[in-house]
Amino acid sequence: MTIEFTDKIRRIPVYPTAGGYALGDDVAMLASNEAPFGPMPSVVEAATAALSHVNRYPDPTNMGLRRALAGRFDFPPERIAIGSGSCDILLSAAEALLEPGAEVVYGWPSFSVYPQMAAATGARAIEVPLDDEDRYDLEEMLAQVTVATRLVLLCNPNNPTGTAQPLAAIEEFVARVPRHVCVIVDEAYCEFSTLEDPDSSLDLARRHPNVVLLRTFSKVYGLAGLRCGYALCGDERFRVAVEQVRQPFFCNSLAQVAAEEALRHQDEVGRRVELVVAERIGLVESLRELGLRVAESQANFIWHALPEDADETAVLDGLRERGVLVRSGRALGREGWLRVTIGRPDENARYLAALRELL
Ligand SMILES: Cc1ncc(COP(=O)(O)O)c(C=O)c1O
Predict the structure, then answer these.
(1) Is 115 in the pocket of ligand 1 (CB under 6 A)?
(2) Where are the domains of the chain?
(3) Domain 7-39+267-358 = CATH 3.30.470.30
(4) Are strands 301-305 and 337-341 parallel, antiparallel or unpaired?
(5) Is the pLDDT score of 141 beyond 80?
(6) Given ligand 1 and candidates 29, 87, 193, 230, which is best to mutate, with the most ligand atoms within 8 Å of its CB?
(7) Do 7-39+267-358 and 41-263 fold alike per CATH?
(8) Distance 4 CA to ligand 1 centre (A)
(9) pLDDT over 90 percentage in the chain
(10) Which numbered atom of ligand 1 lies nearest the CA of 86?
(11) Which pLDDT score is estimated for 13?
(12) Residue 119 to residue 223: CA distance in whole angstroms
């Protein structure tokens, strides 16, 4: 006799986590799109001070952080949702919006949590292939919206390809989606985009009650290990709904304090973005010189093909032996491609040297 689980446990795909956490220090961790920089010093101080108070539960209203975000974006605090990472908000949104008979539309390949949202709720996943330039195919996504659609997910820039649609195209898309369909624009990497000012999308959530902009402190702010994300919602009811389906204390007190402090350092954020973008340009150029197909990245990672005769597993094993961890394209939806996070200059150079050797 074994324990009997629900049907959804059979349906939910296993999340393709990166390995290598036990490999020690001398490894270039280029597999999880994290920041190569540590948290800012004043953030460490604020979180350290907060540690002395963890006998208390965190503020369940997240008010300090919500007010700080409201000030930064000039956005109503009651329409800002907080989560234990933005994944937490995605999964709560699935619970609040999806059920058997409902449909969720998203591009593919895209973020690995999206299929989980459908599987966990029994909704039907409509996966729309990316266009020829590996961008979200917005026309085709619109064509897939039916009376059963409850949720559309737009990953912009897209993980794993790094490609982005310009805001004008997203605006046109949103204007054509029926009002009762929730559109989550997942902007986990928006700070790294040079297409336009990352904050220019805010108007979407100001003008459309069905739009939610999803962002995170895990990437440019370097707080992935603390787990904190947020959503700027077109309608307060989205925040209330995602709070209804979770435990009251969904965001820990260190994360709340650290995120609030990190927000005060936009100059440092700008400096980090510049470093990442400069490294991105160099890495793309070097990969193209190797004759490899590289998607147009607006994120802190690069999606590139391997030569046709290369064996993805052998390349990944070879990279690991050389102390470089990147993400397998097969695990992310396309065999023969790799996703490489932009690391420190020495880590990126190590990746290039190892890849040159292996190819
Ligand atoms: C597109 C996208 N959205 C959301 C997330 C979730 O990030 P977090 O839960 O750390 O905020 C990630 C993480 O890699 C991502 O790639």
Answers:
(1) no
(2) 7-39+267-358, 41-263
(3) no
(4) antiparallel
(5) yes
(6) 87
(7) no
(8) 31
(9) 92
(10) 11
(11) 83
(12) 28
Residue 85 near ligand 1, beta carbon < 6 Å: yes
Alpha-carbon distance of 339 to 337, in angstroms, equals: 7
pLDDT over threshold 90, residue 26: no
SS3 29: strand
CB distance 159 to ligand 1 below 6 Å: yes
Classify domain 41-263 at the CATH class level: alpha beta
Q: How many angstroms is it from 34 CA to the middle of ligand 1?
A: 10
- Which is nearest to 281 in space by CA: 345, 232, 217? 345
pLDDT at 21 > cutoff 90? no
Which residue's alpha carbon is at the smallest distance from atom 3 of ligand 1? 188
- CA-nearest residue for atom 2, ligand 1, is 188
Mutation to probe ligand 1, out of 33, 216, 250 (largest number of atoms < 8 A from CB) = 216
Decide: 139 and 169 in contact? Cβ < 8 Å: no
Please indicate whether residue 86, judged by its CB atom, sits closer than 6 Å to ligand 1. yes
Please give the Cα distance from 5 to 247 (Å, whole number): 22
Mutate to test the pocket of ligand 1, among 89, 158, 159, 217 (most ligand atoms within 8 A of CB): 159
CA distances from 306 to 297, 312, 353 (A): 17, 7, 15
Alpha-carbon distance of 28 to 4, in angstroms, equals 41
pLDDT at 20: 65
pLDDT of residue 23: 67
The pTM (predicted TM-score) of the whole model is: 0.96
For residue 17, give both structure tokens. 């986590």
Pairing of strands 149-155, 124-129: unpaired
Per-residue confidence (pLDDT) for residue 57, from 0 to 100: 97
Contact 93, 212 (CB under 8 A): yes
CB within 8 A of 143, min separation 6: which ones?
none
Residue 33: count other Cβ atoms within 10 Å of its Cβ: 23
Q: How far is the CA of 87 from the centre of ligand 1 (A)?
A: 6
